[in-house]
Amino acid sequence: MERTTNPTEVKLMRAFMQFGRAEWHQRSIAGCKPSEIRVLFCIKKGLMAGCHGMKSDDVKTPVELKVSDISRLLHVTSPTVTQLLKGLEANGLVERHIDPTDRRSVGITLTRKGEQVTQQAADAFSDSFHGLMEFLGEDESNELADLLFKVSRYYHEQSAVLSSWNGEDEL
Q1: Which of 15, 44, 85, 108 has the most CB atoms lying inside 10 A of its own CB?
Q2: 15 torsion bin: left (phi>0), alpha (psi -120 to 50), beta (else)
Q3: Of 150 and 13, the one with more pLDDT
Q4: How many helices (H) and strands (E) does the chain have?
Q5: Domain ranges in the chain?
Q6: How far is CA 6 from the centre of its chain?
Q7: pLDDT tens for residues 98-110?
Q8: Residue 168 and residue 25: Cα distance in Å, rounded?
Q9: What pLDDT, on a 0 to 100 scale, did the predictor assign at position 64?
Q10: Between the CA of residue 98 and those of 31, 132, 147, what are the distances in Å?
């Protein structure tokens, strides 16, 4: 069966396909692949969240994330995270700390170099969106953000509908 599409539908599809080709989100920073940068951001965010509520005396005690924490936060498998961490550790960006009471438990922290690369990536990401906002202007930037939130909500709702059709919500 042949599907007919209207010009606006075709325009939307072409616009989405252009984003895939642009690879604006696939840039390497400081020799790190985008997947490694995501892990660094995840560790930084997780460590910062773990520091809330600590007394200033406790700041010297490192707060560590486990591989399972990173896996859960990034929605990927633990073996995937372990492979990424091996490369990051080899480049001196993260450190692993084996728990002396449970040798199966390994905590992950950023090194000073890892902190610097994470900051460099955050700055590049911020600069990219600052440039986009300058290009579009304040009003169009807000309009685009609102539309993207709306698109995200639409696809999230569609995903929930498909999950229920596939029986994923059933016990």
Answers
A1: 108
A2: alpha
A3: 150
A4: 6, 3
A5: 26-138
A6: 35
A7: 888 888 888 999 9
A8: 31
A9: 83
A10: 27, 43, 46
Residue 22, SS3 per DSSP: helix
Q: Would you identify the CATH topology of the domain 26-138?
A: Arc Repressor Mutant, subunit A (1.10.10)
Alpha-carbon gap, residue 148 to 107, rounded angstroms:
36
pTM of the model: 0.73
Query: Is residue 147 exposed (0-12), middle (13-18) or buried (19+ Cβ within 10 Å)?
Result: exposed
pLDDT in the model for residue 60: 40
Per the CB < 8 A criterion, the answer to whether 30 and 41 are in contact is: no
| pLDDT score for 125 | 86
Nearest 5°: the CA angle 124, 130, 134 is 145
